[in-house]
Design a protein that fits this description.
Elements lengths: L1 H23 L3 H47 L10
Helix pairs in contact: 1-2
């Protein structure tokens, strides 16, 4: 998930910044430099965000699995975590 987020956010930032430079009529060198820095920054941000999301999903699945396994060992039906 982390590489996917980085692969989406980085190029998205690059495209947006290139279009912004084109619309604003900024110089080519400055536009490309800022777009490149935006790509790097947002790729890192996407990687970190994806890493956190992946850890949260894995922990959620792990806890549900342990809850179900515990319930099966006791011989009862697993309790739904969403019940009140």
């Amino acid at each position: 998930m982390d590489r996917t987020y980085a692969g989406i956010l980085g190029p998205l930032a690059l495209t947006v910044m290139l279009l912004q430079g084109l619309i604003a009529g900024a110089g080519t060198v400055n536009t490309v430099l800022h777009a490149w820095l935006g790509l790097l920054a947002f790729a890192v941000l996407g990687y970190v965000t994806g890493r956190i999301a992946n850890a949260l999903v894995e922990e959620s699945v792990r806890s549900k699995l342990l809850l179900e396994l515990s319930a099966q060992e006791k011989g009862s039906k697993p309790a739904s975590p969403n019940t009140k």
